[in-house]
Amino acid sequence: MRHQPGSLAAMARPIAYGVVAALVTAMVWAFLSAVLGLHVGLVVIGAFGGWIIGSAVQPAGPNRRALAGALAALAWLVGSVLDFAISQALLPGASTPLASRLTLTAYFDYTASTFDIIQAAAIAILVFVAWRSAR
Fold first, then answer.
1. CB-based contacts of 24: which residues, under 8 Å, 6+ apart?
2. Which site in 10, 26, 70, 91 is 20 to 30 Å from 32, CA atoms measured?
3. For residue 94, what pLDDT is reported?
4. DSSP label at residue 61
5. pLDDT, tens digit, for every residue of 38-77?
6. CA distances from 20 to 6, 96, 108 (A)
7. In Å, what is the CA distance from 83 to each residue of 12, 26, 91, 122?
8. Are residues 88 and 111 in contact, defined by beta-carbon separation less than 8 angstroms?
9. Share of the chain above pLDDT 90, in %
């Protein structure tokens, strides 16, 4: 049975693939940033993850470019939160429990201290490539 183009049933599979691609991109982003400390590698992850996300949502209908951009931005946000959580879990010599270190204020402080031009470029590349490859 074929679904009408643009219907929710026709868009469900591409959206699900896009969400999975965004989550994988977020996990790789967090791993490279928190565990390996490879901030330059985030540019490559941005380009590749954006391409995967955009390609996954291509059949999603007329709003696929906006969807790809939103999923790419969500991938960065989830990756950033995972990066923060991993960095706090791996913090050597911490005297406070992990749960008390995982606060919104601590997240914003961490993000402000680690955000640089390379990360800004990686985010821009992630969103742009996702938007562009969803055409």
1. 49, 52
2. 70
3. 80
4. -
5. 888 899 999 999 999 999 998 887 889 999 999 999 999 9
6. 20, 34, 26
7. 29, 9, 12, 15
8. no
9. 69
**Helix, strand, or coil here: 133?**
helix
Residue tagged 């951009």 (tokens): 69
> From CA 12, how far away is CA 33, in angstroms rounded?
31
Q: In the prediction, which pLDDT does 7 show?
A: 64
Cα dist from 42 to 49, 68, 115, 118, 126, whole Å = 10, 18, 12, 8, 9
**3-class DSSP state for residue 4?**
coil
Place of tokens 């939160």: 81
CB atoms within 10 A of CB 94: 12
Span 22-33, mean pLDDT?
94
CA dist 116 and 22 (Å) reads: 22
The span from the CA of 37 to the CA of 39, in Å, is 6
The verdict on pTM exceeding 0.85 is: yes
Neighbours of 86 (CB within 10 A): 15
CA dihedral 90, 95, 101, 105 (to 10 degrees): -120
